[in-house]
Amino acid sequence: MAGIAACDVPEGSLLAGFGGPEDYRDCFCREVPGTVFLPEYIERFYCSIAFRPERLVLTLMGRGASSKDARALARGETDHIAVWKVIERRDTQILLESAGTGTASWLAVEPLGDGTRLFFGSWVGKPERPVMLALYRLHRLYSRILLGGC
């Protein structure tokens, strides 16, 4: 995944302040040309080709995440998409928690001189759960794929 890097969770971010200090957090970033605002990033993320397999699984589970749902979330017209509910939203970042899973996702944008830095991060409560320990490597790869699709 060229151009995508693991990075520290930014201090003061919604992700940094969520949960307890013992919880798992990761963060990935990439720089893209031009100005990208949070609503555009949210829509790109949930409508990307990389996210389509997950959308299909969610649809089969009866928890669809259609393009229409993604646009409504991006525009602030709803506070949920599929299994995720908005915990907090600011102009440049959004934190969504997945009910009952002990996980959350974070998306953020940071304006740069001639581009935008896109962030995608995750939070896992009680990270020592055996199933989570087994999935971290796959999760980190999938996070890079998702960010690369935006």
Description:
With 150 residues, the protein is an alpha+beta fold. It has one domain: Alpha-D-Glucose-1,6-Bisphosphate, Chain A, domain 4 (2-Layer Sandwich), CATH 3.30.530. The protein is 31% helix and 30% strand. The chain contains 4 helices and 7 strands. The protein has a 7-stranded antiparallel beta sheet, with helices on one face. The longest helix has 19 residues, at 130-148. It is globular, with a radius of gyration of 15 Å. The mean pLDDT is 91.
Unreliable sequence segments: none
Summed up, the domain count is: 1
Main beta-sheet annotation: 7 strands, antiparallel
Structural class based on helices, strands and sheet pairing = alpha+beta
In one word, what is the shape?
globular
- Secondary-structure element string: EEHHHEEEEEH
Mean pLDDT: 91
Portion in strands: 25-35%
* The top level CATH class name: Alpha Beta
Task: Give the termini distance in whole angstroms.
Answer: 12 Å
